[in-house]
Amino acid sequence: MKNIRLIVLDVDGVLTDGKLLLSSSGEEVKAFHVHDGMGISLAKFVGIEVAIITGRRSAAVEKRAAELNINHVQQGVKNKVSALLQLAGELDIDVNQMCYIGDDLNDIEAMNMVGLAACPANAMEEVKQEAEIVAERMGGNGAVREIIESILRQSFDYAALVKDFLNQQAVRQ
User: Fold this and answer.
1) Are 99 and 79 in contact (CB under 8 A)?
2) Do residues 134 and 123 touch, judged by C-beta distance below 8 A?
3) What is the CA radius of gyration of the chain?
4) Where are the beta strands (DSSP E) in 12-71?
5) pLDDT tens digits for 96-105?
6) Using an 8 Å Cβ cutoff, are 105 and 124 in contact?
7) Following DSSP, what letter does each residue of 105-159 receive, concatenated?
8) 118 vs 101: CA distance, rounded Å
9) Cα(145)–Cα(143) distance, rounded to whole angstroms?
């Protein structure tokens, strides 16, 4: 866990609870948990990149990624392994320095090629069997934050990290 430089997130079932909500006009609506957003901010604070690779396309994902300054967003991806390899090349990061957080069958191949595979508590059983970290929290309910904190606690003095993060936030205000 100490050499993780990139955390790659699936969306539906990981950053959200997996439900697909459609408005009467056909617009897709997604609910994201603020705890996950703070976890992503903490990871970025210590220099860990964050990326999103998802099989679906959604304007809500683009908006949330922009809010969190996630610069690497790939939507409509059919082959997540190819997308991971492309990211590795672009960022000059070895796949062993990546953590992939997924929840369903289409995530397993990507999970098996990275240094750290993780999933939320409500992931499919086959995914849980492949994961080194299975969060206690469900997707869309803080699982991403829990996994990121596990990585950060293994790699840093977490109390000092939080103090530095809060001090930086206070300076910005």
Assistant:
1) no
2) yes
3) 15
4) 21-22, 28-29, 49-53
5) 999 999 999 9
6) yes
7) GGGHHHHHHSSEEEE-TTS-HHHHHH-SEE-SSPTTTTHHHHHHHHHHHHHS-HH
8) 5
9) 5
CA 150 to chain centre: 13
Place of tokens 């705890």: 35
What pLDDT, in 10s, does the model give residues 63-118? 999 999 999 999 999 999 999 999 999 999 999 999 999 999 999 999 999 999 99
Q: What percent of the chain lies above the pLDDT cut of 70?
A: 99
User: Are the C-beta atoms of 46 and 153 separated by less than 8 Å?
Assistant: no
Amino acid of residue 62 = E
| Phi, psi values for residue 8, rounded to 5° | -110, 130
Mean of pLDDT over the chain: 95
- Give the count of beta carbons closer than 10 Å to the beta carbon of residue 13: 24
- Is 97 within 8 Å of 4 (Cβ atoms)? yes
* 23 in Cβ contact with 29 (< 8 Å): yes
For residue 107, give the nearest of 13, 33, 44 by alpha carbon.
Answer: 13
Residue 128's Cβ-count burial label (10 Å; 0-12, 13-18, 19+) is middle
What are the Cα distances from residue 55, in Å, to 11, 92, 148, 167? 9, 24, 22, 38
